[in-house]
Specification:
- This protein has helices at residues 40-51, 53-58, 71-81, 94-98, 140-150; strands at residues 10-13, 18-20, 28-33, 61-67, 86-89, 102-107, 110-115, 118-122, 128-133.
- The chain has 151 residues and is an alpha+beta fold.
- A 7-stranded mixed β-sheet has the order 2-1-5-4-3-8-9.
- Helix 3 links the parallel strand 4 and strand 5 (86-89).
């Protein structure tokens, strides 16, 4: 995954705009995939990205949270947590497929397909420079920020 350029994929954003991955140039981008809106771990992760948002901005970095939830669900999640960054609705799983984040997970003894919590850093030219999989919700934003500082 590291070294790949972003594909020509477009998804809807909580801002009401369509976001094409190939347009994410001129600044660094963090794409963090999470399983589900309004769940405990995803709320912790989103709140931490919100807390560090100004630090990311100082590094010329834009944050996008991505799940397979729809825009209505994203809007409720944003309002509840007062997020200051956009969430992308990958309802068709196009981004999840490209980034290979759909994995078999054990949910209460039942095997299901779900989003593996993962974080990707994209450089100013639209190339993936970091790929972290199976990340923990708590501390993910701080670790990503530290990684950005070292790139």
């Amino acid at each position: 995954m590291v070294g790949k350029s972003l594909p020509n994929l477009t998804v809807e954003s909580s801002s009401g705009k369509s976001i094409n991955l190939q347009d994410l140039k001129g600044h660094k981008t963090v794409l963090y995939f999470y399983p589900k809106d309004n769940t405990p771990g995803c709320t912790i992760q989103g709140n931490e990205y919100n807390t560090f948002l100004n630090d990311f901005k100082k590094l010329n970095t834009v944050i996008y949270g991505i799940s397979r939830d729809n825009l209505k669900s994203h809007d409720k999640f944003i309002q509840k947590c007062n997020f200051k960054f956009e969430l992308l609705a990958d309802t068709e799983g196009k981004l999840c497929k490209f980034f290979d984040v759909i994995k078999v997970k054990n949910m209460y003894g039942k095997m299901v397909l779900g989003v593996e919590r993962s974080t990707f850093i994209i450089d100013e030219n639209g190339k993936i420079v970091s790929a972290d999989r199976k990340v923990k919700a708590e501390g993910n934003a701080a670790l990503t920020l530290e990684k950005l500082k070292s790139l």
